[in-house]
Amino acid sequence: MRSSILIPGLKPIIMVILAIVISWFLVHLLAVFGVLLMVAYPIWWFLAPDKVPCFFCRIQKEGRLCFSCGQVVHADSLYPKTFLSILINAGLILIVSCICVGFIFLESKILFKLGFPPTPKTVSFIIPSKGQYRLGEVFPMKIDISGIKVPINAVQADVGFEPHKLEVVDISTGDSFANIFIQKEINNEVGYARLTGGLPNPGFFADHGVFGTIFFKGISPGIVKIEFLPSSMVLANDGRGTNVLKDLVSVSYLILPERISEKEEAMQKTISIESVVLGEKSDGTQMKFYEETKVLGAEVEHEIQQQKKLNLLKVFLECLEEFNRFVLSLWEKVFDLFR
Q: Cys bridge to 45: 24, 52, 200, 318, which one at CB 3.0-4.6 A?
């Protein structure tokens, strides 16, 4: 009984949604084929006059005067009667097509605000590809960014590593091109590290630049893998915050079974790795706004899964943007013919 009550209530909603979807497809089809239909309309009339519909006759009641044909409308003669009627109907097709193109133009503006077409992905993280270190040895891994074709203003570097073989001692920003940092998080239990920061307008624009340095320490011998995670981002200063990171690199290092001496270990402790204080200025240029109380791990996994779910929608919007760009370029060529 309840289902029989709900279904009639859902029917109007389904019909409205269906009408909107069909209208959306018709608008896009007419935006592409409107010009061809306008040209074909009079040709069709010359070949088969009584097979061509007069749009004004069809919307007018029987017995009324048709604006286009100048004659009384009859149910058995809903086709153009004069050449002037053909021109008026063809003009109507052109007007409707132009309105559809205007809709496409507005749609393309909305897509642009959403990040389509995307700024080309050209940026890569560059990290040292070879290295071997002893147990207990602290070694740096610089996060170098290359392939910058447009200014960038924000970077999120998420690094994963094997926690039973490595641990992160600290993350340094002393030689970074960025001057504002909002996150520096380390989780040696699950093997995650994150550094997030950037700089204000106009951003950073150079062939390459160092974003930060991660200090690792070998705790177990063997080959260890360090990789950048899919939640990493390099955002362009293009007004939309486009992620221009094109690939995710990984590297393998060898941790030797030989342990460093007590003297070497004591010397390592004297190495100055910058302290982290909330809101502290460093070297007069860097501002830090992070706390070291967060635990990274499940949060990064959630971000990665969310990005995967958005891939299908992203592909659809990219295809729609390419179609709209084709339509607008087609009509631009048509208008160029009349200039």
A: 52
Which DSSP category does 49 fall into? G
Alpha-carbon distance values, 299 to 45, 59, 291, 332 (Å) = 66, 59, 16, 47
**Type of residue at 27:** V
184 CB contacts (<8 Å, ≥6 apart)?
Answer: 171, 173, 194, 195, 196, 276, 288, 290, 292
CA-CA distance, 95 to 251, in Å (whole number)?
60
Q: How many helices (H) and strands (E) does the chain have?
A: 6, 13
Domains in the chain and their CATH numbers?
Answer: 2-113+317-337 (no CATH), 124-296 (2.60.40.680)
CA distances from 328 to 74, 97, 102, 107 (A): 40, 12, 9, 11
Cα–Cα distance list, 245 to 115, 225, 232, 266, 318 (Å): 14, 21, 8, 39, 17
Task: Write the CA distances from 279 to 4, 105, 180, 199, 290, integer angstroms.
Answer: 62, 45, 10, 15, 8
The number of residues in the chain equals: 339
The 8-class DSSP code of residue 212 comes to E
Residue 143 has a pLDDT of 92
pLDDT tens per residue across span 294-320: 545 555 555 555 555 556 777 788 788
The predicted model scores a pTM of 0.58
* Cα 193 to Cα 171: distance, rounded to the nearest angstrom: 9
Q: Please choose, from the candidates 249, 246, 222, the residue with its C-alpha nearest in 3D space to the C-alpha of residue 234.
A: 246
**pLDDT for 105 beyond 70:** yes
State both tokens at 19.
């009408």
What Å distances lie between residue 70 and 47, 83, 93, CA to CA? 22, 11, 19
Helix axes 311-337 and 83-113, enclosed angle (nearest 10): 140
Q: Using DSSP, state whether 145 is helix, strand or coil.
A: strand
